[in-house]
Amino acid sequence: MTTNRKRTRTARRLRLWWVLGNRHTRRQLGTVEDWKTRGVFWLGALTVGLVIQGFAWLSEESYGLTETMFAYNPYLFLLITPLGLVGIVWVMNKGGKASRGSGIPQVLLAHKQSYHWLRGPFLSLRVATLKVLLTCAGLLVGATVGREGPSVHVGAAIMYKFGCWAKLKQRQVESSLIVAGGAAGVSAAFNAPLAGIVFAIEELQQSMEARTTGTFIMAIILSGVVVLAFAGHYSYFGVPEVSAMPFAYYPYIIGVSAACGLMGGLFSVLLVQGNRAIAPLVQQWPLRVAFCIGLVLAVMAILSGGLTMGSGYVEAKALLAGEDEASWLTAVGKMLATLLTYFSGIPGGIFSPSLAAGAELGSAMGTLFPQVPAVSLILVGMASYFAGVVQRPITAFVIVLELTGNNHDILPALMVSALTATAVSKLIMPEPVYHVLAKDLLRGWEHLLRDKAEPLPAAQVEEVQITK
After folding, report:
1. What CA–CA distance (Å, rounded) separates 110 from 118?
2. What would be the CATH architecture of the domain defined by 247-443?
3. Strand, coil or helix: what is 322?
4. pLDDT (tens digit per residue) in 324-345
5. Distance separating alpha carbons of residues 186 and 200, to the nearest angstrom
């Protein structure tokens, strides 16, 4: 009897040891749902990288055709730009008004659980497709738009759809998917994974879910891997030659940063207030407003020799390479053209135009401080003006650093300039521009707020399955 009891106790201990060991192993490996979530993040990120790379190629080809047509006869744009903007606005209003603007305000609203009813209309594949095609159309007709904001919107929409198709159960994962998609869009658009991570944490999501942070970062890296596979290793604005800045130069850097931050804050105020002022006219006569704005943009392009058109990527790269000289008129013209294009309502972002305007400002101010290297002031102008516009200092200096070859000698100067510009910008624009634009955007979709308690139509059931 004693022997049987010992055998029974031994068997129980072995069984307990096996169960506990198996649980520990399963906890380490993760559940099926955990791997399903990781698969959605990773596959979605690879898809985002592929789509954004195609978006980049299409936008470059579109602007290349614009440059060719402008060189052939710039006066053609007195018809091309107004009629082109009219066509873009008409297609946008018919196909999906949620594709309007940069797309970052849409993502800011959609990733919040309190606005989950906006995810269907804001993050549909139709809206993402329109965002890509109409942004490229804007570049083709001579508008002043960037593709980085739209890339955030497109990336978030793709990741959200992958989550819907996979029917993930975790509510927290849904917002993480949207943030990861937007960050992957930035990473793929700029070929800058670190900038994507910082942008997501600083702009899109202030608190990350610890359980999904590793998967989230891996998704951003995977989107960058796709870009490397197709485009190779490159810096967005090339690799300018810069050296460490002596301490004696920092008073000049702070002065340039404060001026650029002031200009960036003023730009944000004009963007918000001008958009609010023109909104009733856009709602009543969208095509007429687009035509008038297109005509003004065409005249500005002709007077500036085409420098106010496009994203500004070509001009900024030429300044950094020392192949061109900036002027105050070009800098102000770029800012004004960006404002007017945004007021027209067409899809397109302000990332690249803001970086280009900052480069123009930094180069123009370089004539006031000839003792400071011109390239260094251009980089400081880019970081500080962009920080003044978006009021995200870490994102600003990380983006400029990664987009210009990761030369860490200039990093302290970029950090000081971004922080200084943000502080100055907040004096005239207390709240970040994208958050203000998101609040203004929400007012146009209040009918969904009133209808959210009612049963959803069958066509929208798929869009909100992930929230159940």
Report:
1. 6
2. Orthogonal Bundle (1.10)
3. coil
4. 787 888 889 999 999 999 999 9
5. 9
